[in-house]
Amino acid sequence: MSWLTDYVRPKIRGLLKREVPDNLWTNCESCSQMILVKDLRKGLNVCPHCGHHMRATVAERFAWTFDEGVCTRIDLPKVVVDPLSFRDRKRYTDRLKDERAKSQLDESMAVAHGKIGGHDAVVAVMAFEFIAGTMGAALGEAFVAAARLAILQKAPLVVFTASGGARMQEGMISLMQMPRTTVAVQMLRDAGLPYIVVLTNPTTGGVTASFAMLGDVQISEPNALIGFAGPRVIEDTVREKLPEGFQRAEYLLDHGMIDMVTKRADLPAMLGRLIGLLNHRQAAAPLRPAA
Amino acid sequence: MPPDGFGGGPGGGTWQDSWLCYPHGMRQFLDFEKSVAELENKIDELRHMSGPDGINIAEEIARLTEKSEKQLRVAYAKLTPGQKVQVARHAQRPHTAEYIGTLIQDFTPLAGDRLFGEDKAVIGGIGRFQDLPVVVIGTERGSELESRLEHNFGMARPEGYRKAQRLMELAGRFGMPILTFIDTAGAWPGIDAEARGQAEAIARSIDTCLSAPVPVIATVIGEGGSGGAIALGAGDRVMMLEHAIYSVISPEACASILWRDPKLATSAAEALKLTAQDLLQLHLVDRIIPEPLGGAQRDPEAAIRAVGDAIGAELPDLLSLSGAMLVAQRREKFLVMGRDGLT
Hints:
The complex is a heterodimer of chains A (about 290) and B (about 350).
Chain A: H1 2-5, E1 7-8, H2 12-16, E2 25-27, E3 34-36, H3 37-42, H4 58-65, E4 71-74, H5 92-103, E5 109-116, E6 119-126, H6 137-152, E7 157-163, H7 171-175, H8 177-190, E8 195-203, E9 217-220, H9 231-238, H10 249-254, E10 260-261, H11 267-278, H12 280-283
Parallel strand pairs in A: 6-7, 7-8, 8-9, 9-10
Antiparallel strand pairs in A: 1-4, 2-3, 4-5, 5-6
Helix pairs in contact in A: 6-8
Chain B: E1 20-24, E2 27-29, H1 34-48, H2 54-77, H3 81-88, H4 96-103, E3 104-109, E4 122-129, E5 132-139, H5 145-150, H6 158-173, E6 178-184, H7 191-195, H8 198-211, E7 216-225, H9 226-230, E8 237-241, E9 245-247, H10 251-259, H11 265-272, H12 276-281, E10 287-289, H13 300-319, H14 323-335
Helix pairs in contact in B: 1-2, 3-11, 4-13, 6-8, 10-11
């Protein structure tokens, strides 16, 4: 269990630093209006004109979610690298190396613990910027580690999802992360701990069809694309025009697949409230979950 | 008869170009079986010949038969991953319904998910396997155009996976082992399926399968296509027929994404390690069931018997364990997949 004790204390401020200086302008990817970069950052990467939620980095998620942005990142267990010796137009090992250099992340999921609304919580964040947030053995390992840490701390697990699906370069090992992460959810369930999923844009494929749809509470950011098959695959298969708003968060809400659509700015308060209500047994210490 | 052009599923179908049909009875040959097809056609012709030199004809038939069997043996001993994909999707391989028909006595189909509808892409019910009451669930592709449409080519909608969950729960309540048969290009990627929560249905199906307090034996009999397959695949034992494939994505779709060229599906098939032999080595499946010479499609009855024997061999060990023990062991098995044991 050395990964639990080898804490890495991140310097949030340092991680948040970006290459683009604050005084530059950028365009909203949805409404194309000009936004001052400084304003965009202050506004949690949400367009002040149209409310479009742009992508967030792992460091930003942790900073926005935990009380005062204070958290402790955990070192994740190492896994076998490139188990299939996969090579497409590029070697998978080279791809991993390049992605690590580019994103300064080890893999497509990072885990930290801290307080949300005054309650202990473990948070796992998926990094879409790392090979499209695809799920391989390392992500499975990270998710299992997050669940184990939550159980150890009797804390809830909150996961922010963002994924293009399976990591093809890991073949069937990638597919097997679906039952694997599902077992981790079952471990939380057995321990009587809340498991909250926050779906962010986009979440598709094997991630949606496993741990991302098994939350006790399912939240989504506005307009996030959420589905099993990608829209293009569906269009190619059924040869029909997809309905307006298809596979968006609001569509899933209408179809009974999620509990709520919550704006980014309101997420910490909502998470704090849900944790306070659901994890009451841990707060009241002596009460033990029914075995 | 048209070749099984649907083999590729969504985004696929490029292999259909390589199909060759020879008029040998109703048998469909694959491109790499060309020389065997020619020999068998010759044998057929000889059989229809009659004359004073009948004895010589019999000798010639015996000689050619031996030759064609030898060629089959050689070809099937070293099938490439690309060829395995073709064999696994062969239209004349036995389907789930045929396995049930032979292996399950008193089979009683049960229908519907009790929530929305009845999805015939997943068939299931109760019956007896070697006198033991069991629950059987499997994806069914259908065998000719009409039944393929009826079964949606084995590509299930959420209702199919929710029916599977219902049957798994029923199995748990009544202490009946669960046998699943997997043969699907994948879950149906349609508007209706997404609207009714395809992802949730698959996730919950895996969840339910992992929690069943009874033995679960999953067998990939043809094509194990991604999420649509793993929904029925989280078993205590996962078995594959010798020439079956099991993959996270179809080689065609993988090629078009990673190589930007669906024609490179053969390269993708090799890279994905989707054969039974590769997956056994990776410890992701537990047993390979040998197929008759020339694949299950040449002798469906023998293939079905072999699967029955394998299930019969695996069941006693599992039946000796308590429900709680089975669930604990099953979870542990999937919990370590990708962590260790990979060579």
